[in-house]
């Protein structure tokens, strides 16, 4: 594996060339989580794209995680995540400006969700008309988000109508998020809530957030924090089933699921 530096102009040209060569106009941006170095993130993203078989041009947004499973590394990574918010905003703006790009999908995992949500919040504050009307961002997929529930409510409120559709993937047996909850003073994390319980059920339905509870996909010895990626097949099947049933949380009509739309 090798890496070359590309400035914004050459990056945009590279994406356009990849789209022309593949005949695809959809981009999937992946934001990795805590304790993921560059090579780990590349491997995981390649596996996600391969296993899900989605016809996209993959773009990895990698940020400076220390790549260590320690408390001090956790706090270092959180500061690195804060540092990286504007860079993701710039990436999404670059893709918006590319005439070769038709649709953009954003997939974030664990602490990477903090970067994703903060970038969306920034976009909504800076240019709400662009964020809501001219953005090519079609869906944001939040997988096991290590985000304070109350902060998430605040972020959604600030985005208001200038946010793309959001899909939330939770696991109520996520040990990593349970530990994070302890670190943050026993405050609920978005990725391990029970979406059938109040006030979450009402709030998520009101905000039209599609929720996929992966707890039922648990198998002996698996890692709930990575379940959505380790069991891509069942996850995609779950979304397709939700589409066929036409039901979303709160008995609302569901739009096509994010990975299912990508696979079309």
List keywords for this structure.
264 residues, alpha/beta, Rossmann fold, 6-stranded parallel sheet, 12 helices, 6 strands, 49% helix
In short:
This protein is 49% helix and 13% strand.
CATH classification, class level = Alpha Beta
Global shape: globular
Secondary structure category: alpha/beta
Assembly annotation: single chain
User: How much is the radius of gyration in Å?
Assistant: 17 Å
% residues in beta strands: 5-15%
CATH architecture call:
3-Layer(aba) Sandwich
Main sheet makeup: 6 strands, parallel
How many DSSP E strands?
A: 6
Enumerate the strands of the largest sheet in spatial order, edge to edge or round the barrel.
2-1-3-4-5-6
Helix content: 40-55%
CATH topology: Rossmann fold
User: What's the mean pLDDT score?
Assistant: 85
Question: Any idea how many domains?
Answer: 1
What are the segments in which pLDDT stays under 50 over at least 5 consecutive residues? 246-256
Order of helices and strands: HEHEHHEHHEHEHHEHHH
Please give the count of helices: 12
Distance between the termini: 30 Å
Pfam family, one: DUF900
GO molecular function, one term: hydrolase activity
Protein name: Alpha/beta fold hydrolase
Keywords: Hydrolase
Q: How would you characterize this protein structure?
A:
- The chain is α/β, with parallel strands linked by helices and 264 residues long.
- The protein has a single domain (8-263), classed as 3-Layer(aba) Sandwich (Rossmann fold).
- The chain has helices spanning 8-22, 38-52, 71-83, 85-97, 112-126, 128-134, 149-159, 175-183, 200-206, 227-230, 232-245, 258-263; strands at residues 26-31, 57-61, 103-109, 137-143, 166-170, 210-213.
- It has a six-stranded parallel sheet, sandwiched between helices.
- Helix 7 links the parallel strand 4 and strand 5 (166-170).
- Mean pLDDT is 85; it is low at 246-256.
- Keywords: Hydrolase.
- This is Alpha/beta fold hydrolase.
- InterPro entries: AB_hydrolase_fold, DUF900_hydrolase, UCP033909.
- GO terms for molecular function: hydrolase activity.
């Amino acid at each position: 594996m090798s890496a070359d530096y590309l400035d914004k102009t050459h990056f945009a040209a590279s994406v356009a060339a990849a789209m022309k060569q593949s005949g695809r106009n959809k981009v999937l941006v992946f934001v990795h989580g805590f304790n993921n170095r560059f090579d780990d993130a590349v491997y995981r993203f390649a596996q996600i794209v391969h296993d899900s078989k989605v016809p996209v041009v993959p773009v990895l947004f990698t940020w400076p995680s220390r790549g260590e499973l320690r408390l001090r590394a956790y706090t270092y990574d959180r500061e690195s995540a804060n540092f990286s918010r504007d860079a993701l905003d710039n990436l999404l703006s670059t893709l918006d400006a590319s005439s070769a790009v038709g649709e953009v999908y954003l997939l974030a995992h664990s602490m990477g969700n903090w970067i994703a949500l903060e970038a969306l919040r920034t976009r909504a504050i800076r240019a709400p008309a662009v964020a809501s009307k001219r953005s090519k961002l079609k869906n944001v997929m939040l997988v096991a988000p290590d985000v304070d529930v109350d902060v998430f409510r605040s972020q959604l409120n600030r985005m208001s109508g200038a946010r793309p559709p959001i899909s939330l993937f939770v696991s109520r047996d996520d040990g990593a998020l349970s530990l994070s909850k302890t670190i943050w003073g026993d405050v609920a994390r978005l990725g391990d809530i029970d979406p059938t319980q109040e006030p979450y059920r009402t709030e998520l339905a009101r905000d039209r957030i599609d929720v996929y509870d992966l707890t039922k996909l648990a198998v002996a010895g698996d890692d709930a924090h990575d379940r959505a990626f380790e069991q891509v097949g069942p996850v995609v099947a779950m979304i397709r089933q939700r589409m066929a049933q036409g039901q979303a949380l709160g008995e609302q009509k569901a739009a096509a699921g994010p990975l299912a739309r990508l696979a079309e």
